[in-house]
Amino acid sequence: MNTKETDHSLLEKQLTTEKIFSGNLLHVYKDKVQLPDGSTSYREWIDHPGACAVLPVFETGEVQLVKQFRYPLRQNFLEVPAGKIDPGEDPMVTAKRELEEESGIKGRNWVALGGFHPCIGYTNEIIYLYLAWDLEVSDNRVDEDEFLKPVRMPFAKAVEAAFNGDITDGKTITNILRGAKWWMDNAPFPIQLKI
Predict the structure, then answer these.
(1) Contacts of 116 (CB under 8 A, 6+ apart)
(2) What pTM was estimated for this model as a whole?
(3) pLDDT tens digit string along 23-77?
(4) 51-186: which CATH architecture?
(5) Backbone φ and ψ of 44, nearest 5°
(6) Which of 180, 188, 184, 187 is nearest to 55 (CA)?
(7) Cα separation, 13 vs 8, whole angstroms
(8) Is residue 144 annotated as a catalytic residue, yes or no?
(9) What DSSP string runs through 39-86?
(10) Which of 83, 62, 56 is CA-nearest to residue 138?
(11) What residues does each domain of the chain span?
(12) Which of 18, 59, 101, 144 is flagged as catalytic?
């Protein structure tokens, strides 16, 4: 079944739109829509520029994550290096920039793992996922309002943490699991993995 095919019997038609908030990153809209049965309703949604996330893999079989405090939930999270796409920027350019800024890592080899929509109920955000290896490490160059701690762990342990709930960030779980599947099928160098 192709879930991307449009089923016209489910379409909602935008009748009006109103921007109710405009921030540095996010813009919030309230749209009046016509539902498939002809009635009307309202949809509040967030316009997001999109983002990229990268799982760097070392020849030791370790991956590089970052620990970061996330204000909305008031707690620390383990995450893959990631960041938003600048206007007109190619996602691969974003991915390379964010990996170097957040972890001081440059990857010589890259593979795109596709995108995913983290919050389809209220935003149009898409996050493009990548895997990088053959790595060169230097100092990170995080933004002045960004505070991160690097965390290296075995790839297999990261997969386990994605499954058992020790890692709860959606982009990180998706990046780790897609990355592990790709690695098991294509292994540029051997790492003990299982899903």
Answers:
(1) 126, 127, 129, 170, 171, 174
(2) 0.91
(3) 999 999 999 999 999 999 999 999 999 999 999 999 999 999 999 999 999 999 9
(4) Alpha-Beta Complex (3.90)
(5) -100, 130
(6) 180
(7) 10
(8) yes
(9) -EEEEEEEE---EEEEEEE-TTSEEEEEEEEEGGGTEEEEE-SEEEPP
(10) 56
(11) 8-47, 51-186
(12) 144
